Predict the structure.
Amino acid sequence: MAACKEGRKPESAQAKSEVIAWFKWARKNRIVIAMLGETVYTPDGEAVALAEMMRRFPVWE
């Protein structure tokens, strides 16, 4: 509620936005091909935890 009053997104919405932005970047760079919940899939079909992939591949635009 405080976030709305201050004109910013709640922390959960900020986190979700960051995940979406990271996924779009990673997909564009062919690091991942799909995401289901907290799991992403690499081009070779490996399922990896989203948090681990975000740690391994920080966004570099």
Observations:
- The beta strands are 34-36, 39-41, 47-49.
- The mean pLDDT is 87.
- Residues 22 and 59 are 6 Å apart (CA to CA).
